[in-house]
Structure to design on (795 residues):
């Protein structure tokens, strides 16, 4: 622990001598010559970047050379300026040159600006590309504040998960171009269904806490808003290939026609990813596509987007116990069975096989410098199954008819079954924006309809018992309708104060019928009405110093598995955020304190159901209190440090549990999967213009997998380090450039576990007349040192 504290502290030290430099300064103003804060100004081909201050000013100290300045707003490049720096120089840039692209309207209603009183982080396409070698999006976000990631297969490919401030992925609201990605019933996000999607992202914003109002299930830990590729004005193409440990390989091809006749663009991507996985047989066979057609002029953007994926993933969610972890870290019990000769075998097709296709149509219209609108339509079609080999299954469970052979009645059989999901998701999303010097107003409405079938079939049985092919042994349906209206306003009171108001009404109707996979009747007919207000203010103390405060409320309905466990009560979260932003010269620091208190929070118990989904329980009163600090410090033109640390206390109040046959009040206990410290850092060194070296570190403190502070449920802390190398070759025949990327994960070969499960059960057989609570745990070990190497050929 001392090493980690020292490591984090030292990165804030910036006392380093710099060679003789010239001053390059400037100001960004709007069409009324008013200063624009929060515009990112970066030096192309380097890691050097700063933001304009409250007066719209920026300032660099650079050596004599020709530089290309990139001006961007909310993470997306807008304009370039080439400067031949031979002496001190000052320039002015009009906001019209870097005005929000029409593409940005797709996500404006669910995002916040740089100086909003909402805690957030932005990542651009270029930042994502630095480590994008086929791993899923959660892994690429691993170094953001308060983020913890994990993966079933141990490699970052296949089933991957993200937690923010201790909240699991089902509580992180995800939107793609403003359209919800979370599954309507499970509320989860399954990135395995969209492999290599990071290659089609223009930029993203991660809001921690409740954040601003968004579409879909309410954000209870964070919201993640993704914007897909913007319209390219020039034709381009690229081919990427990468290879690495555990048979990992990623291949993709991208293209854009550029603007044809200055109005029409067609762009697309095809990707294929495969990996054997670190865990035995935890293989992934992933394919995806992205295609868009756009019409754009000065005031109109119409964009049709189709994207999707097909994943075949061998299951690895079973985990292993402590004894197996100590002796055989890669063991995978999935598919285990015993053949007729008593030999242990593994079924070769114990897989998850799922396809998901998304079709979106967006129409953005700008009527004047003040008014713009956005209309979005979406259809998502998902279908697939989980296949299992099961031994000695009872005929009665599958409605098989007992068989009499030689006078013996046979009523059990080995079989292979598939559990299917088949669902349709429709969305209509409309919003309008009014903006002038003092007001920025967004308002709109959202409607979605989900219809999902859940059913099971036996595709082979040793004794079929009179069944017919494609008979369903269970069938259930779930439908969910959601209607949301919202209005949010940012008002610039004066040069110092800005106020923010966000009001949302959310109305949810959920119905189910039929049977669960356990063949238990599930009849739900619930309606929820939520009012979610959010208020905040930002105060500009002086040049480079800004304070903000906000209050937000969120309400959230239970998910399908909660109803299966008899829970129908909605959760409520109140969130207060107090932040300080510092930006001056070579240093940017963001600091925020938060207090999130919950009523009827559905916390993870640590246990899993029979398909690996986490089981939740109501904890009553609970809270999360923490401080987060992240920084971007330019020690020199060649050396940048990006540290962050999140310290928190996450507690259930007066938590009651069953122990040895009786209910026991344990007082305040730790909320499951909520480490008290999460820290990260990036050392980025650029010795020459086209070479970047990165040393990335991540520390996650110990955490409990349950809510009763049992030592059995504890996951040890871990500290891992990665090395990232990027080299770009320019000015070569045929290609615009070739980008070579290397990533060595867990470079010090740390043996660690990032996730697991915990369960308890009452044993009343060992000692008749008494009840004893027995505890157990399972673990998901992650890979030791491993590597990925890639090359991107750009045309």
């Amino acid at each position: 622990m001392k090493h980690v504290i020292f490591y984090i502290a030292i990165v804030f030290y910036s006392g380093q001598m710099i060679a003789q430099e010239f001053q390059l300064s400037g100001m960004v103003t709007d069409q009324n010559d008013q200063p624009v804060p929060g515009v990112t100004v970066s030096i192309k081909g380097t890691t050097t970047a700063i933001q304009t201050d409250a007066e719209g000013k920026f300032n660099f100290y650079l050596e004599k050379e020709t530089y290309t300045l990139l001006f961007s707003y909310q993470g997306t490049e807008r304009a370039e300026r080439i400067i031949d720096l031979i002496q001190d120089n000052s320039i002015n840039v009009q906001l019209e040159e870097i005005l929000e692209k029409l593409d940005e309207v797709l996500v404006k209603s669910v995002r916040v600006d740089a100086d909003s009183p909402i805690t957030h982080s932005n990542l651009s396409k270029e930042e994502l590309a630095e480590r994008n070698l086929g791993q899923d999006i959660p892994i690429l976000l691993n170094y953001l504040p308060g983020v913890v990631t994990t993966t079933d297969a141990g490699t970052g490919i296949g089933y991957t998960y993200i937690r923010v401030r201790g909240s699991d992925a089902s509580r992180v609201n995800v939107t793609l171009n403003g359209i919800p990605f979370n599954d309507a019933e499970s509320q989860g996000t399954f990135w395995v269904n969209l492999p290599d999607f990071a290659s089609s992202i223009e930029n993203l914003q991660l809001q921690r806490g409740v954040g601003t109002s968004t579409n879909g299930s309410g954000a209870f830990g964070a919201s993640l808003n993704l914007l897909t590729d913007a319209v390219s004005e020039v034709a381009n193409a690229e081919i990427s290939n990468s290879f690495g440990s555990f048979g990992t390989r990623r291949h993709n091809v991208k293209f854009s026609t550029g603007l044809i006749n200055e109005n029409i663009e067609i762009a697309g991507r095809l990707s294929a990813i495969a990996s054997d996985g670190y865990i035995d047989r935890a293989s992934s066979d992933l394919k995806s596509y992205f295609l868009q057609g756009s019409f754009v002029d000065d005031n109109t953007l119409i964009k049709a987007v189709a994207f999707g994926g097909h994943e075949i993933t061998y299951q690895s969610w079973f985990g292993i116990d402590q004894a197996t972890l100590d002796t055989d870290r890669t063991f995978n019990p999935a598919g285990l069975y015993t053949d007729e000769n008593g030999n242990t075998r593994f079924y070769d097709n114990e897989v998850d096989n799922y396809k998901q296709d998304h079709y979106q149509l967006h129409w953005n219209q700008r009527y004047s410098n003040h008014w713009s609108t956005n209309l979005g339509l979406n259809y998502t079609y998902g279908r697939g199954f989980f296949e299992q080999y099961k031994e000695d299954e009872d005929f009665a469970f599958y409605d098989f008819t007992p068989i009499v052979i030689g006078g013996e009645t046979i009523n059990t059989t080995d079989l292979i079954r598939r559990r299917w999901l088949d669902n349709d998701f429709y969305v209509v999303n409309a919003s309008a924006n009014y903006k002038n010097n003092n007001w920025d107003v967004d308002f709109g409405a959202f409607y979605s309809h989900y219809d999902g079938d859940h059913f099971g079939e036996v595709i082979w049985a040793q004794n079929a018992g009179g069944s017919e092919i494609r008979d369903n042994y269970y069938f259930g349906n779930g439908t969910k309708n959601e209607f949301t209206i919202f209005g949010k306003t940012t008002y610039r009171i004066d040069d110092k104060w800005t106020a923010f108001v966000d009001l949302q009404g959310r109305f949810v109707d959920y119905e189910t019928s039929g049977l669960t996979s356990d063949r238990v009747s599930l009849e739900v007919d619930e309606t929820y009405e939520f009012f979610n207000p959010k208020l905040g203010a930002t105060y500009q103390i002086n040049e480079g110093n800004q304070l903000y405060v906000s209050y937000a409320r969120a309400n959230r309905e239970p998910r399908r598995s909660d109803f299966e466990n008899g829970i129908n009560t909605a959760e409520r979260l109140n969130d207060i955020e107090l932040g300080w932003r510092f930006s001056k010269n070579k240093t940017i620091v963001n600091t925020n304190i938060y207090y999130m208190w919950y009523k009827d929070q559905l916390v993870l118990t640590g246990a899993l159901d029979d398909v690996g989904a986490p089981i939740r329980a109501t904890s009553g009163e609970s809270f999360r209190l923490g401080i987060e600090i992240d920084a971007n410090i330019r020690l020199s033109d060649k050396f940048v440090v990006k540290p962050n640390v999140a310290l928190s206390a996450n507690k259930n109040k007066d938590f009651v549990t069953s122990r040895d046959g009786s209910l026991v009040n344990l007082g305040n206990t730790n909320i499951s999967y909520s480490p008290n410290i999460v820290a990260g850092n990036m050392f980025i060194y650029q010795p020459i213009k086209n070479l970047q070296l990165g040393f990335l570190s991540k520390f996650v403190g110990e955490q409990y997998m349950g809510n009763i502070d049992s030592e059995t449920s504890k996951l040890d802390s871990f500290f891992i380090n990665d090395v990232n190398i990027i080299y770009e070759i320019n000015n070569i025949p045929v290609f615009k450039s070739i980008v070579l990327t290397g990533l060595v994960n867990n470079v010090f070969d740390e043996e660690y576990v990032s996730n697991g499960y915990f369960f308890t059960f009452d044993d009343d057989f060992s000692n008749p007349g008494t009840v004893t609570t027995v505890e157990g745990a399972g673990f998901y070990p992650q890979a030791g040192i491993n590597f990925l190497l890639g090359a991107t050929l750009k045309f």
Summary: The chain has two domains: 2-99, 104-794.
